[in-house]
Amino acid sequence: MKKSITIIGGSIAGLSAALFFASAKNNELDFDITIFDDGKADLKAAAIYNVPFFPKGAQASEIYAHIKEQIASMLEVKYIDSTVVSINGEKGDFTTTDEQGLGVKSDYIIVATGASQCNIKGLENFVIPHTLMPKPNKICLRCGERQMVKEGIYAAGLVSGVTTMVACAMGSANEAACAILSDIKGTLSVYHDTPSTRS
Ligand SMILES: Cc1cc2nc3c(=O)[nH]c(=O)nc-3n(C[C@H](O)[C@H](O)[C@H](O)COP(=O)(O)OP(=O)(O)OC[C@H]3O[C@@H](n4cnc5c(N)ncnc54)[C@H](O)[C@@H]3O)c2cc1C
């Protein structure tokens, strides 16, 4: 079985979600992942000293390069450098469209667009103020259980309402990804490796 997932936002949250799916690929379940990103990440302003196992003072370019290399070793992901303007459809048949009119179909969508704005048609009714940001005019999406915005659409990272820390953004991305995996499998699911899983 192959499931397609579009990720909007390719910073730490979007890439963490993609890495989860890359690692969860196996003989029974494969993924077709597309990541849209328009290059305006908060992470680009940061130097990270407080995330375990990250090099001290890590910056966005090396973090992205490292995660993309890790993803590429397990799954081929399509990266599109553009701004998403709309989402249409429903679970199993979404179309995500960018400013050039390119439409990508998918079964699921992860919105990982950060806390600055979310001007995506189809999500406007879910935008609310972000209450855990120490800056004005920040937003997130109103989510239900397991960060589901609506059936088939999940929020990850700051747009899910978590505190603005890299580790929180990564954790929320894994939560959204596990929720999608559970939905695909029809039962509560996680993906765990052991030292012998891949040998
Ligand atoms: C100055 C500064 C210093 C910081 N220092 C630290 C620190 O020391 N430690 C720490 O843990 N955290 C730090 N942070 C916080 C950290 O950067 C954020 O918590 C983290 O980047 C959030 O990740 P994210 O993926 O949710 O959002 P972001 O990193 O903001 O990424 C969102 C991505 O979505 C893309 N996007 C948005 N809308 C669209 C669209 N419509 N179409 C396509 N792409 C879209 C954006 O271009 C962006 O690339 C700092 C933040 C700032 C601003």
From TrEMBL:
Residues 1-24 form the signal peptide. The lineage of its organism: Bacteria, Pseudomonadati, Campylobacterota, Epsilonproteobacteria, Campylobacterales. GO terms for molecular function: oxidoreductase activity. Coiled coil: none annotated. Keywords: Flavoprotein, Oxidoreductase, Signal. Pfam families: Pyr_redox_2. This is NAD(P)/FAD-dependent oxidoreductase. Residues 4-125 form the FAD/NAD(P)-binding domain. It comes from Campylobacter sp. CCS1377. InterPro entries: FAD/NAD-bd_sf, FAD/NAD-binding_dom, Ferredoxin-NADP_redctase_2. Gene3D superfamilies: FAD/NAD(P)-binding domain (3.50.50.60).
